[in-house]
Amino acid sequence: MRSVKDRLEKVFRGTKIDAILLTTNENLDPNFIYLSGFENGLDQNGVFESHYLIATRRGMTIITNPLGIGECRAQRPREMKIASIDSGKKLIALLRRHLKGRVVGVNGRFISYNWIGLLKKEIKPKKIVDISQAFDSVREVKDRGELGKMRTANAIIKKAVDQARAYLVEGVTEMEMSMHIGSLVIKNGGSAPSFPTIVSFGKNSADPHHMPDSTKLARNTVVMIDAGARYKGYCSDITRTMIFRPDRKSDKYARMADIYNTVARAQKLAMKEYIVGNDASKAHNAAESFINSARGGAYKGKFMHALGHSVGIDVHDGRNAVSPYSKFKFREGMVFSNEPGIYVNGFCGVRLEDDVLITRKGPRIL
Ligand SMILES: [Mn+2]
């Protein structure tokens, strides 16, 4: 697997460290997925609870235990050695052998304060360095293997949301719909939803991150579904908004449709800015200024979140967002969501979202 070597090289390039230590005590460190290339057992903590990954420029060692060794053997890339331990004492001895006196990089956003204390006291590295930002920046640009997984993750969620339309009947609740979408993700080959599925009906859709409750679906109201699938460790994130059994002669329908059409046009305009070398803020501004000036300013200020975020191993992958404050330029291989919205309190909200890959030939919806 050429990609493992590439990834090690990229992470080490921007840092002055001898080794990396990743821990998966309570939760799975996303960088563990990135470096190992593992594809199964990654949801929640999966089978990799209490595993440790030590990486150097040349290769890596995974420290596993009798519960996890089977999966480690099954998924191990060529560059990975496996060490199985059955006691805390052996763990300490092994870590000491690899890390004592070395400059050790850790994911400061993830490793626990406990573990830093333990490292200092028992392992005695020369220095501990937070390399979370190095991981962020290399993970932002996807390689071919990653893009393949992300395409599948997108295909799965699109199919699931499409099939979920069959469950939209009068009286169904938001929670029921959320559950249906979750099982359709699995049915279509995903390992899990990539985040708790948002389903909001009617007025609830004016709250961008409304969590599904027992609200029942009524005719001529908005249905907003914001959902994602995970596939082999990689996420998708899309939003679809529709009007359930529209009464096309009603004023209410005309208002909802106008909001929808405005958001759809804003999304198209923003998409044109997802270009290699372009300032990311331009994409946001294209959507926002269109929304603010539409209908004589009727929707001014009603798009109040960032246009996009990086998507990858995490749904919000890395720190860069597509917003008025973005300080970076789009590069080939980046994937950002494009998700403008209009939220009218007490009435409804509309958001449309796709994951967009930046290529030299222009933007591509995954
Ligand atoms: Mn999103």
In the CATH hierarchy, what is the superfamily of the largest domain? Answer: Creatinase/methionine aminopeptidase superfamily
Biggest sheet features: 6 strands, mixed
Fraction in helix: 25-40%
Numbering strands along the chain, what is their spatial order in the largest sheet? Answer: 4-3-2-1-5-6
- Strand tally is 19
Report low-confidence residues grouped into runs of 5 or more: none
Based on CA inertia axes, which overall geometry fits?
elongated
Return the string of H and E elements.
HEHEEHEHEHEHHHEEEEEEHHEEEEEEE
CATH first level of the largest domain: Alpha Beta
Structural class: alpha+beta
Q: List the bound ligands.
A: manganese (II) ion
From the N-terminal CA to the C-terminal CA, the straight-line distance is: 24 Å
> What is the helix tally?
10
What CATH calls the topology of the largest domain is: Creatine Amidinohydrolase
Gyration radius, rounded: 23 Å
Number of domains: 2
Provide mean pLDDT, rounded: 95
Q: What portion of residues belong to β-strands?
A: 15-25%
CATH architecture of the largest domain: Alpha-Beta Complex
Polypeptide structure, described:
By secondary structure, the chain is α+β, with helices and mostly antiparallel strands. The chain folds into 2 domains: 2-139, Creatinase/prolidase N-terminal domain (Creatine Amidinohydrolase, Chain A, domain 1), CATH 3.40.350.10; 142-365, Creatinase/methionine aminopeptidase superfamily (Creatine Amidinohydrolase, Alpha-Beta Complex). It is 35% helix and 21% strand. It is built from 10 helices and 19 strands. It has helices at 2-13, 30-36, 69-75, 88-99, 113-123, 132-140, 144-164, 174-187, 251-271, 280-293, and strands spanning 19-23, 52-55, 60-64, 80-84, 103-106, 127-130, 192-193, 198-201, 221-227, 229-231, 234-235, 238-244, 308-309, 321-322, 335-338, 341-344, 348-351, 354-359, 362-365. The strands form 6 sheets. A 6-stranded mixed sheet has the order 4-3-2-1-5-6, sandwiched between helices. A 3-stranded antiparallel sheet has the order 7-10-11. The model has no long low-confidence stretch (mean pLDDT 95). The structure holds manganese (II) ion. Manganese (II) ion (MN) binds at residues 237, 309, 337, 339, 353.
